[in-house]
Specification:
Elements lengths: L1 H6 L2 E7 L6 H9 L4 E9 L5 H7 L3 E5 L5 H11 L4 E4 L9 H8 L8 E7 L4 H14 L1 H6 L8 E4 H4 L10 H11 L4 E8 L7 H21 L3 H9 L1
Parallel strand pairs: 1-2, 1-4, 2-3, 5-7
Antiparallel strand pairs: 4-6, 5-6
Length: 235
């Protein structure tokens, strides 16, 4: 533990929108991890007491005047973060533990560039119906390698993060994953544990599915995967 603190500073970035009931738990859990040097909460235009509750914990709070989306919030958090490693955590996890966070940090001791999580819960509808089929067509190596490509609990080195243009909405997670794979980053997937959070409403799932679809198709064009996929379908 001491070795990581001497060599690398760790910043935890938590985008939050109307999470006054959950944010304190997530922040305090991150505070219990020795390697965490700072915690930044990006209050994404919340209409409740998210910012107030976060400030009471001692976390640094960045407040956006209007709700701009998860990706935009992460971008603003990264701009202010001072760490060499960024850990992104969702603000609505009800059962997060220090061990969950430690599992994301530990691989950086082994010179990994990017750490993503897999978790135990019932399969997500957007993952199964949108992300997996599209990845299977355009990025089959990602679809086969990662069981849960849409996990929002990730760790990434700052130097790598600075090379990525973040999507502003819910497509940010899949965009980061595709980019780091295409950059040949050293990636490790770790077990995060059982994940408990509020179930999203259908309208939110629809919005997420559209964002994920758009990002996968955009990246497919960027990395010249569309022609490859068409050729394979024709064979």
């Amino acid at each position: 533990m001491i070795e990581v603190r001497q060599k690398l500073k760790v910043s935890v970035v938590i985008p939050a929108y109307n999470e006054e009931e959950n944010i304190e738990k997530v922040i305090n859990t991150a505070k219990d991890v020795d390697e965490v040097d700072e915690i930044l909460v990006v209050n994404d235009g919340s209409e409740d007491r998210t910012a107030e509750v976060a400030k009471q914990t001692g976390a640094k709070v960045i407040t956006l005047e209007e709700n701009r989306g998860k990706g935009y919030a992460l971008k603003k958090g990264c701009e202010k973060a001072k760490g060499d490693i960024f850990i992104f955590l969702d603000a609505d996890i009800k059962n997060i533990t220090p061990k969950n966070i430690q599992n994301i940090i530990d691989p950086f001791k082994e010179t990994y560039d990017f750490v993503k999580t897999r978790f135990e819960r019932k399969k997500g509808r957007v993952t199964q119906l949108t992300a997996k089929p599209l990845l299977g067509h355009f990025f089959p190596e990602i679809e086969k390698k990662f069981e849960q490509p849409l996990s929002g609990q990730i760790g990434i080195k700052k130097e790598l993060m600075n090379k990525i243009d973040l999507e502003e909405d819910m497509g940010v997670d899949i965009g980061i994953l595709i980019d780091v794979v295409e950059m040949y980053a050293k990636i490790k997937e770790v077990y995060f544990g059982r994940l408990k959070h509020d179930e999203k409403e259908l309208k939110d799932l629809e919005r997420m599915a559209k964002a994920v679809s758009r990002v996968i198709l955009d990246r497919a064009a960027k990395y010249n995967r569309i022609d490859e996929a068409v050729e394979e379908l024709g064979e």
